[in-house]
Amino acid sequence: MNKTAEKQELLDKIVEAIQDVKGEDIMIFDLSNIENSVAETFVICSGNSNTQVAALAGSVEKKVRNELKERPWHVEGTENAMWVLVDYVSVVVHIFQKQVREYYDIEELWGDAVITKVENEF
After folding, report:
1. Sheet containing 114-117, strands listed edge to edge, beginning at the edge strand earlier in sequence
2. Backbone angle region of 75, left / alpha / beta, with phi > 0 → left and psi within -120 to 50 → alpha
3. Which one-letter DSSP state was computed for residue 67?
4. Is the dihedral of CA 52, 19, 10, 98 positive or negative?
5. Residue 45: which of 29, 63, 23 has the closest Cα?
6. Contacts 24+ apart (CB under 8 A), 106-114
7. Average pLDDT, whole number, for the chain?
8. Could you say which of 3.30.460.10, 1.20.1330.10, 3.30.300.30, 3.40.640.10 is the CATH number of the domain covering 3-117?
9. pLDDT-derived band at 122, boundaries 50, 70, 90
10. Is the Cβ–Cβ distance between 45 and 95 less than 8 Å?
11. What DSSP character marks residue 120?
12. 3-state secondary structure of 13
């Protein structure tokens, strides 16, 4: 499997894992054409509480580990679960509580990215 297909499979699993725990406002940012970006792709979503944010991060890690045998290179933010980052190097997942996401306005910060909004399945 080539790198593009592997990355797409990883993205699909991440999105499924977020949808499994009813994550909201899922967006995929393609940063591959942006100079000096920290990753090729961001997946961003929101949860309604620190409990849900922690559950979303746990769901992503578990599904990717169980189905793709991959572990994140780095995870941070789990202590207070206001903003959890799960870093798979080529794909970085940002899971925010709604008000924190609004405050940091990541969509505006990475406005040059190609942004795909994932429709909720519920």
Report:
1. 74-76, 83-87, 91-97, 41-47, 24-30, 114-117
2. beta
3. H
4. negative
5. 23
6. 106/42, 106/44, 107/27, 107/44, 110/29, 110/31, 110/34, 110/37, 110/42, 112/34, 113/29, 113/30, 113/31, 113/34, 113/42, 114/29, 114/30, 114/33
7. 93
8. 3.30.460.10
9. low
10. yes
11. P
12. helix
Task: Report pLDDT for 35.
Answer: 85
Closest CA to 53 of 65, 44, 42, 41: 44
Using DSSP bridges, classify how beta strands 91-97 and 83-87 pair: parallel, antiparallel or unpaired.
Answer: antiparallel
Helix-helix angle 50-68:3-20, to 10 degrees: 140
What is the length of the chain?
A: 122
C-alpha to C-alpha distance for 30 and 35, rounded to whole angstroms:
12
